[in-house]
Amino acid sequence: MSPERISPDRTGLRLAVLTLLLLVAVLGWLFQGLAGNRAFILGLRLDRLQALALIGAAVAVATVLFQTVAQNRILTPSIMGFDALYVMVQTLAVAGLGITGYTTLPAGAKFLAEAALMTAMAVMLFGTLLGRGGGGANDIGRTILTGVILGILFRSAASLGARLLDPNAYAVVQAVSFANFGKPAAGLTLWAAAIVVPAIAVALWLGPRLDVLGLGRERAVSLGLGHRRLVVGVLVLVAVLVAASTALVGPVTFFGLIVAGLAQALFPGAPHRVRLCAAMLLACLMLIGGQWLFERGLGQRATLSVVIEFAGGLMFLALLLKGRLR
Amino acid sequence: MIDVAEVSCRIHGTEILAPATLRIPDGQITALIGPNGAGKSTLLRLIGRIAPLQSGRVSIDGLDLAGTASDRLARQMAFLGQSTALASRLRVGELVAFGRWPHCHGRPGPDDRAAVAAALAEFGLVGLAGRFMDELSGGQAQRAHLAMAAAQDTPWLLLDEPMNNLDLAHARTLMEALARRRAQGGSALVVLHDLNFAAGWADRVVAMKAGRIHAEGTPDEVLTSDILSDLYDTPIEVGRHRGRPLVLHHM
């Protein structure tokens, strides 16, 4: 049964506070400094708001799901080589099509192709590895290790491809190889929403099963969970969400670790539905509030992605040093 | 009844379990004994479908393991392995409540709450229900996992070394709980290292050695000096106490 929480009131209160803070950030982002052609500016801000919310939700949910499957709170999907695959694909596309060909690719088709490619890779990798040896507990570890090795392979291939590019083409690849929350890819919000929203809905629907999955393979099987099918399905969801967020802002390494870690700290032992919602709220709050602060408060004198990745890196180290590997 | 037919297991070419055929009657406590590496846990994990069947066939109360849905089997048998490590941060009451998953799939009713309360009480965990699992001693954590298996309320309990970390009193409490279940028609297949618990509580004993079934029968038939000395490759004496075997290995 879904565990009965000791203090549901406090859970509700904390979620309400997070929601309220997010609401303040959204209103601040939308309306602070609104002058001139208000409708036009508001439209632009709304577009970016939607993109930031999608990215935050996608990264948060992907990380929480991945950590549940991996039974490890220090891992993020980027360790599976998804980001590296994305950079490699961009490098090969620029090398093959040239700058003009690459930049004139239809945004929607390119986005869908990238998402399909990354999902196909996930299915091939997880389906093959988890199907071997009967899906024993070690297969998760083997799958992750294979992902790490593939990530190195993809990075090496991208690096090799980059060496073959002229400086202008290389600059194009560099521009898409690092996260940029300030300029989400234009024209992709609807495409991303069409993928991210259903994926998050499925993740929330799976919440109680994810709680059982979090007990570990042996207990989950004993309780009647179709473990292998659920693990593969969840990892495909992770691939879809990572593909969508990466296509929107580029690779994000540690952001998911921060929000998943904070959600766990604020809601210890909470069921997945609560943790998923909390992680999404925190992610959206950090991205929208952060962009609001950095753009309007600091006048673009700092970059949110750098701060987030730096803070995430510190958190990663802190978790490592505290020995919280599981 | 659990019917094991020609079940075997190899890992990387090494035979862990030779083809084994065994019938484990229901309504009884059956102890699996034997030295380390005998294949006891492997056999239990194959029966509990934790490890995939490589060959042969297992059925439990007429349900073929290979052809029965996992959630149906979860209402027929509960499996508890040796590891009590948890990645999730849970309170004791929450862990035990997960035992009701096969019955309610996350929507607990009064029966489920009653079963959880009974399991907590049976293993002396009522006072610890609100504590996080990572704040417990090894023995308390083991009792919480046992309570979760009990809350699953299945006709069969498959327990792999359930005495791990338990003190003598709680080990006895566990065996008494199994005996109460037996009186109500329940069955248990338990890997035991303490042979006197097998002698005192089991109805049948299956002795394994080197991946093979070495002997099986009642405690009186299996727990003899000759069989046990041969099983463990060390001299073991067996006396009698209140009409049951008493294994003496410290003389």
TrEMBL record, chain A:
Q: Which GO terms describe its molecular function?
A: transmembrane transporter activity
Q: Identify the GO cellular component terms for this protein.
A: plasma membrane
Q: Which Gene3D superfamilies match?
A: ABC transporter involved in vitamin B12 uptake, BtuC
Q: Does the keyword Cell wall biogenesis/degradation apply?
A: no
- Membrane spanning residue stretches: 12-31, 51-70, 82-105, 111-131, 143-165, 185-207, 228-246, 252-269, 276-294, 300-321
Cellular location(s): Cell membrane
Among Pfam families, the record links this protein to:
FecCD (PF01032)
Query: SUPFAM superfamilies, per this entry?
Result: ABC transporter involved in vitamin B12 uptake, BtuC
Q: Which UniProt keyword terms apply here?
A: Cell membrane, Membrane, Transmembrane, Transmembrane helix, Transport
Q: Chief localization class?
A: membrane
Using the record, list the residue span of the signal peptide; answer none if the entry has no such feature.
Answer: none
Which domain of life does the UniProt lineage start with?
Bacteria
Protein name as annotated: Enterobactin ABC transporter permease
Species per Swiss-Prot/TrEMBL record: Paenirhodobacter enshiensis
From TrEMBL, chain B:
Q: Cite the GO molecular-function annotations of the record.
A: ATP binding; ATP hydrolysis activity
Instruction: Enumerate the InterPro entries for this protein.
Output: AAA+_ATPase, ABC_transporter-like_ATP-bd, P-loop_NTPase, Siderophore_ABC-ATPase
Q: Which SMART domains match?
A: AAA
Subcellular localization(s) per the UniProt record:
Cell membrane
UniProt cross-references to PANTHER family, sorted A to Z: IRON(3+)-HYDROXAMATE IMPORT ATP-BINDING PROTEIN FHUC, PETROBACTIN IMPORT ATP-BINDING PROTEIN YCLP
Query: Which family does this protein fall into?
Result: Belongs to the ABC transporter superfamily.
Can you name this protein? ABC transporter ATP-binding protein
